[in-house]
Amino acid sequence: MKKLNEDIIAFFQRQPFVIISSIDKKGYPHNACKGIVDIDKSGRIYLLDLYKARTYENIKSNPQISITAVDEHKFIGYCLKGRADIIKEKQMSPWLIELWEKRITKRISHRLLKNLQGQKGHASHPEALLPRPAYLIEVEVQEVTDLSPFNKSISLA
Q1: Domain map of the chain by residue range?
Q2: Which tens digit of pLDDT belongs to each residue from 98-143?
Q3: How confident is the model at residue 5 (pLDDT cuts 50, 70, 90)?
Q4: Cα distances (angstroms) measured from residue 100 to each of 27, 38, 90
Q5: Partners of 69 in the beta sheet?
Q6: CA-CA distance, 82 to 142, in Å (whole number)?
Q7: From CA 95, how far away is CA 45, in angstroms rounded?
Q8: Coil, strand or helix: which one is 35?
Q9: CB under 8 A, 24+ apart: contacts of 106-109
Q10: Residue 34's closest CA among 139, 124, 123?
Q11: Is this structure's pTM higher than 0.85?
């Protein structure tokens, strides 16, 4: 595993959510929206999942996943491919929970500001009703694909 560059780290840290793709037992892809809690230079990404549902079951049987995010306005995006490990709630570091709580607060504040500016979205603040995270997904990135036109995959293995 090699380091992620600062541009990729900053890009993913700016995203309100990413799309996680996992594979079910029948071989079909499953996509889910998740929030990145932390991403470090070594190529590790931490996501807190609120439900032990499809993504959880898929990672247990096949740890290969991808994390995708795009910025339509800037016409850039990346797909990070790698191996996921499940870290149970009892083993989660308190600092990750604190980071998650800060991200939720930021999302609620962002929604409030947009509503005040007249950009009406969801009538309530669904983030405030989210349950406590059920487990942590730790991903070791092995490959980065730049989704901008004419760019190629970068192998980190």
Answers
A1: 6-89+132-150
A2: 777 777 777 767 677 777 777 776 666 666 566 566 788 999 999 9
A3: very high
A4: 31, 9, 16
A5: 78
A6: 5
A7: 14
A8: coil
A9: 107/16
A10: 139
A11: no
